[in-house]
Each structure stands twice: as structure tokens, then as C-alpha cells.
Specification:
By secondary structure, the chain is of the alpha+beta class. 21% of the residues lie in helices and 29% in strands.
Length: 189
């Protein structure tokens, strides 16, 4: 895996994972990992990978009653919409975010594949968005670490929310282990 430090000045690019600094006190982004799906002059778009909620897919999509995959809150923007990642290059219109992981595409095709047993997908309610230069400003203020993750890590829904964040922080190298183990409340340190 390619890992970057929080002080790296390069703009994050599509496929990067933003890891919040350990003391960020925010219900959407505290100890979260956000997959960056778009970053251009108009702003940035991403999906929180580790904000799982106890909602059944059948509660969101009535015709997928037999599916038991976990759903994540992708972010605070447009929470009435469903977004999805998958690993099927056959789904037309999907945008490849990293090698082998696609965002969106023909939704009916995805549903048909899921009904036929396809399991390599993730659903997100809402998304994370930043206006032009907002994300760059947050990175300069050290609110985010920038890293990369494998397609297996991105598609994983194993573990609890904090465990996922810690695993990716630890994957940045031993010099980050103290960050992964920091308490969420700095006064407890």
C-alpha cells in the first residue's frame, strides 16, 4: 500500500482515503475514513467508508429483501440519495475510483447482479462534499491524513467503525501507531 503523511502538500486525488485526525469532534467525520471519489476545481466528493448504521437494505430498497449487507452513512450531504461502490466492470456507467472499484453505474444491472448472488458492493446514504479549496484548507490545517487503501480494504464492511480507522492509520507505518491508540477525548491522554 502507498501511504502519505499528513504534511504532504500534494492535493489529494481520486482514490485517496482521507483519515480524520484523532481528536476531530464531529459526528460525521470523527475517526472516519473517506474515499475521495472526485476532486476538481469545483470541489471534492467522497464517501465515508466506516460509518455503518443498523439499517437493512430492504428498508431502503424494497426489491432487495434477501440482502444482508451493511450500509454506511456516506456523509451529511444529500442524505435522501443512495450511492454505491462495486467491483463489476460489466456495470455500464460506473466510474473506476481505484483499480477494480467503481462508483455508480446502471443501477438496475447492479440490482440484477445482487439478486443473482453478487456480493462485492457497498451502499452509502448521502455523501461528503467540500467546496472549491475547502478540502485543501482542511488538509493544510492537519484535519486529515492522506493514505491509499487496497480495493479489499475499501470494499470491506468488517469490524466496527473505529477499528477500520485504526487499521488504516496503523497501515501508514509504525510511526503512526500512537495516533491509532490515542483516546478520542484528548483530556484522557
Amino acid at each position: 500500500m502507498i501511504r502519505f503523511t499528513p504534511t504532504e502538500k500534494a492535493a489529494p486525488k481520486i482514490g485517496d482515503v482521507l483519515l480524520s485526525e484523532p481528536f476531530l469532534d464531529d459526528p460525521y467525520f470523527g475517526r472516519k475514513a473517506v474515499l475521495l471519489c472526485e476532486n476538481n476545481k469545483d470541489g471534492a466528493f467522497g464517501l465515508v467508508l466506516n460509518n455503518f448504521v443498523n439499517i437493512k437494505i430492504a428498508d431502503v430498497l424494497e426489491d432487495l429483501t434477501d440482502v444482508s449487507a451493511r450500509i454506511s452513512i456516506g456523509g451529511p450531504v444529500n442524505s435522501a440519495n443512495l450511492y454505491y461502490l462495486h467491483t463489476s466492470p460489466e456495470i455500464e456507467g460506473g466510474n473506476e475510483i481505484i483499480d477494480g472499484v467503481y462508483l455508480g453505474g446502471e443501477f438496475e444491472t447492479l440490482k440484477d447482479k445482487i439478486k443473482a448472488g453478487f456480493t462485492s458492493f457497498r451502499f452509502f446514504i448521502g455523501y461528503s462534499g467540500w467546496s472549491d479549496n475547502q478540502l485543501s484548507d482542511e488538509i493544510r490545517s492537519h484535519s486529515w491524513f492522506i493514505t491509499r487503501a487496497s480495493s479489499k480494504e475499501i470494499m470491506s464492511t468488517e469490524g466496527e467503525n473505529d477499528e477500520f480507522w485504526k487499521r488504516l492509520i496503523n497501515g501508514m507505518g509504525p510511526e503512526y501507531a500512537h495516533i491509532a491508540e490515542a483516546p478520542s477525548d484528548p483530556t484522557l491522554n
